């Protein structure tokens, strides 16, 4: 596995753990369809929380959350609709979050949670 894939997997594991510590229940991880992938789908018992996780080894090239651009947002929304159909969820409020994980070597890992990011 490439180093960036290992870093990404670690970030998703940390983000999932963080969400669980906040009281959310993880419903799906790395759910894929022909349109793309959702990193994490969770619930807080009142709504569906769709999470995009961005992990970086530092902020030299910007904050991780900055990588979630308009094209990525459109794709996440499309894949979320596919997830809802695949799981036969007719209607539920949906919140879209971004979790930015920075795992800089030799420093504590940080998780920044942007609720209702888009």
TrEMBL record:
UniProt-listed CDD domains: PoNe_Nuclease
Question: What keywords are annotated for this sequence in UniProt?
Answer: Endonuclease, Hydrolase, Nuclease
Q: Cite the SUPFAM superfamilies for this sequence.
A: Restriction endonuclease-like (SSF52980)
What Gene Ontology molecular function terms does this protein carry?
A: endonuclease activity; nucleic acid binding
Q: Which domain of life is it from?
A: Bacteria
A Pfam match is UPF0102
Q: Which family does it belong to?
A: Belongs to the UPF0102 family.
Name-wise, this protein is UPF0102 protein FHX44_11472
Which species is listed as the source? Pseudonocardia hierapolitana
The organism that produces this protein has a lineage beginning with: Bacteria, Bacillati, Actinomycetota, Actinomycetes, Pseudonocardiales
């Amino acid at each position: 596995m490439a180093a960036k894939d290992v870093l990404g997997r670690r970030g998703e594991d940390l983000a999932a753990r963080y969400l669980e510590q906040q009281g959310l229940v993880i419903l799906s991880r790395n759910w894929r369809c022909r349109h793309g992938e959702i990193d994490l789908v969770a619930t807080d018992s009142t709504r569906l929380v769709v999470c995009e996780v961005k992990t970086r080894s530092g902020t030299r090239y910007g904050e991780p959350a900055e990588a979630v651009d308009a094209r990525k947002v459109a794709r996440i929304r499309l894949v979320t609709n596919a997830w809802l159909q695949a799981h036969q969820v007719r209607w539920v409020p949906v919140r879209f979050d971004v979790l930015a994980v920075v795992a800089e070597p030799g420093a504590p890992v940080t998780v920044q949670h942007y609720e209702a990011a888009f």
